[in-house]
From TrEMBL:
Designated name of the protein: IclR family transcriptional regulator
DNA damage recorded as keyword: no
Organism the protein comes from: Teichococcus aerophilus
Keyword match Transferase: no
Domain IclR-ED: 87-272
InterPro entries tied to this protein: ArsR-like_HTH (IPR011991), GAF-like_dom_sf (IPR029016), HTH_MetabolicPath_Reg (IPR050707), Tscrpt_reg_IclR_C (IPR014757), Tscrpt_reg_IclR_N (IPR005471), WH-like_DNA-bd_sf (IPR036388), WH_DNA-bd_sf (IPR036390)
SMART domains: HTH_ICLR (SM00346)
UniProt keyword list: DNA-binding, Transcription, Transcription regulation
Region: Disordered, residue numbers: 1-21
Any one Pfam family match given in the protein's UniProt record, by short name: IclR_C
HTH iclR-type domain sequence ranges: 25-86
CDD domains, per database record: HTH_ARSR (cd00090)
């Protein structure tokens, strides 16, 4: 004979499951609330901040965060704080492949490759970790002696694609990136000092694009122009990469003009209104 409803075992995580600070809320709902708080919040948060924001008891949050850390979605930092992981950002970028920004970018990068015969990518800024990731590309029909790594978090300190994004971030964000001390992926050199970096970023903003040789990949030239969103903040960049042996002085002006024009077009399609970025 079946047990009365009150005596039947209840599956963990069901909506009726009561837990301290989260009675009547499913485990999935609690996890979603926590991840949303991280995605919408600052660089890192404390248990106290999360408790106030999502309305869950610290003991409940400790258990959830332990599981999210074990799953690789959240990183535990010093001073009892937490932040999103590179894996969290990677998943978000992969999801963006189905979003409007990618649908808008796809024909643009295809056109750039068609007109230059070189590989073109769309690089997306990952604002929570202040890194970037290539989320789409069209490949050159010409030989390429190196591979462009897709859907992997990359430093903003090295290479045209990262520096282009860094140039339009706020000074505190630039300081945060520089403070991580990320070494060159090519030769292991330490980052430049702050004054040198700031001067370089100012030059990138002045000409409207970044150009580097062999900084992210040995033997490669990179060029990138910024793409902005509706909030006037930078969201990504339009990039070209090619072997240095195939790059001439005449190419720089031609490629730069095309990248800037198409990046501006992509910014407008994403709702960008030209003007200064709001302070914050």
């Amino acid at each position: 004979m079946a047990a009365p409803p009150s005596q039947r075992p209840r599956a963990p995580g069901r909506d009726g499951d009561a837990e301290e600070g989260g009675a009547g809320i499913s485990v999935v709902s609690r996890v979603v609330a926590v991840l949303r708080a991280f995605a919408e919040g600052g660089a890192s948060v404390s248990i106290k901040d999360l408790s106030e924001q999502v309305g869950l008891a610290p003991s409940t949050l400790h258990r959830l965060l332990d599981q999210l850390v074990a799953a690789g979605l959240i990183d535990r930092t010093s001073a009892r704080r937490y932040r999103v992981s590179n894996e969290f950002s990677r998943i978000g970028a992969l999801a963006a492949r189905k979003s409007g920004v990618l649908r808008l970018a796809r024909p643009v990068i295809q056109e750039v490759t068609r007109r230059t015969t070189e590989t073109c990518m769309f690089g997306m800024l990952l604002p929570q970790t202040l890194t970037m990731m290539f989320i789409d590309k069209t490949s050159s029909p010409l030989p390429m002696p190196y591979t462009v790594r897709m859907h992997q978090a990359r430093s903003l300190l090295w290479g045209a694609t990262g520096l282009c994004l860094l140039a339009w971030l706020t000074p505190p964000e630039v300081e945060r990136v520089l403070g991580r001390g990320e070494r060159s992926p090519v030769d292991g050199h330490t980052p430049p000092d702050e004054a040198v970096l700031m001067q370089r970023l100012a030059e990138i903003r002045a000409r409207g694009y970044a150009l580097t040789r062999g900084e992210q990949t040995h033997g490669a030239v990179g060029m990138a122009a910024p793409v902005f969103g509706a909030g006037r903040a930078i969201i990504g960049d339009l990039c070209i990469t090619l072997p240095q042996s195939r790059f001439s002085a005449a190419d720089e002006g031609r490629f730069a003009q095309l990248l800037i024009q198409r990046a501006m077009e992509l910014s407008r399609l994403n709702g960008h209104l030209p003007g200064p970025r709001p302070a914050g």
